[in-house]
Amino acid sequence: MSDSGRDLTNDHGHDRDHDRDQDHRHGEGECARERLRLALRGARRTLSRPAFDATLGELLSGLAADAGEVYDLGEPADLYGDGVVADLERRVAALLGAEDAAFFPTGTMAQQVALRCWAGRTGNATVALHPLAHPEQHERGAFQALSGLRTVHPTSEPRHPTADEVRDFDEPFGALMLELPLREAGFALPSWEELIEVVEAARERDAVVHFDGARLWECATHFGRPLDEIAQLADSVYVSFYKSLGGIGGAAVVGPASFVAEARAWRHRYGGQVFQQFPTALSALLGLSRELPRLPSYVEHARVVADALRAGFEEAGTPWFKVHPETPHTHQFQVWLPHDADALVTAAAEQAEETGNALFRRWFAQGAPGVAMTEVTVTGPGLEWTADDVRAAVKDFVRRL
């Protein structure tokens, strides 16, 4: 979705002056984003500090210092998925109330394998999912290119499909995939009752249900249910170890034991049977130990931050803005402003450099010319911000536009 991901190849019909202007503005944008990256690293206060802000040395020293809290470092290193990797699999299966779990190096591979396994078992290679879901937006058509899967969309609205849309869809599908939360729609979730109804509608059609739960860990507050109760609605679930938990990477697929055994076979075929993965597995265990218990507090404070952002924009006299969802479903949400993305990135960098407060991170051109969106994430560092702090920072940020 980022500007840098767009195709910048010149069409034959473009004149050279226009091309040079486009290249110049693209270069300015890259400089602004690099400036913001450095400003975020140096900021005293920010709403979150993701691992990718850290240096290699910081990440390595942190893992070495803390990993002994979650695993006996006197044990041998893992080989092809045993040891600490197998322990992580058992821990995840227990947390999600599943018979078994398989560790994968990436979520893209994990979901490729899960949906491929279900296609073989159901005899139907069609997957119903949202057009904003991760496989449709960020995986280069991998479902079709690698696994022979075909995708259909019960709805194109920026929300989860309803039970009626699933029940009345005009062609058969073997699996319904639900991304919880749906990131591109503002980290949106259905209500608990709606989720149950959608799952039941899929089952009425003899389809299996798979949850893209990359961020499932942060959904319990919205649903008012424990993680295992949420996960057990589905036939299989994928979870990430870095998107909510702050790990180095990695993912897992959970489900029935026979299904997970088949997934392990396909993991090997897809090149996911990695020789050693102990740094990733240890960081995942640390995330489960440290971040998972804190996620409910992040979700609750994200709602405080969202309210304060709205109040700050109103007090600053901003003519149009949008905080979406109005009440965040998770600890992440969107903010939209009617400004050029590069101008917003520059303002964010200036604010972080001059005040030490980093309120916003990257901004992305969205929807229409002159409109941009950013994703706000509230984690441990964000708990230090009061509503008054956020309102004051918003007004300072608007002043720089």
Topology:
Layout: H1 16-42, E1 45-46, H2 56-66, H3 84-95, E2 100-104, H4 107-122, E3 126-128, H5 134-138, H6 142-147, E4 150-152, H7 163-167, E5 175-179, H8 192-204, E6 208-213, H9 220-223, H10 227-231, E7 236-240, E8 251-255, H11 257-269, H12 278-290, H13 295-315, E9 322-324, E10 332-337, H14 341-355, E11 357-358, E12 364-365, E13 372-377, H15 387-399
Parallel strand pairs: 1-11, 3-4, 3-5, 5-6, 6-7
Antiparallel strand pairs: 2-8, 7-8, 9-10, 10-13, 12-13
Helix pairs in contact: 1-14, 4-11, 13-15
Report on the structure:
With 401 residues, this protein is of the alpha/beta class. The chain has two domains: 18-47 and 294-399, Aspartate Aminotransferase, domain 1, CATH 3.90.1150; 66-290, Aspartate Aminotransferase, domain 2 (3-Layer(aba) Sandwich). 45% of the residues lie in helices and 13% in strands. The chain has helices at 16-42, 56-66, 84-95, 107-122, 134-138, 142-147, 163-167, 192-204, 220-223, 227-231, 257-269, 278-290, 295-315, 341-355, 387-399, and strands at 45-46, 100-104, 126-128, 150-152, 175-179, 208-213, 236-240, 251-255, 322-324, 332-337, 357-358, 364-365, 372-377. The strands form three sheets. Strands 2-8-7-6-5-3-4 form a seven-stranded mixed sheet, with helices on both faces. The chain has a four-stranded antiparallel sheet with strand order 9-10-13-12, covered by helices on one side. It has a two-stranded parallel ribbon with strand order 1-11. Strand 12 and strand 13 (372-377) form a beta hairpin. Helix 1 (16-42) runs parallel beside helix 14 and helix 13 (295-315) crosses helix 15. The protein is globular, with a radius of gyration of 22 Å. The two termini are 23 Å apart. Residues 1-25 have low confidence and may be disordered.
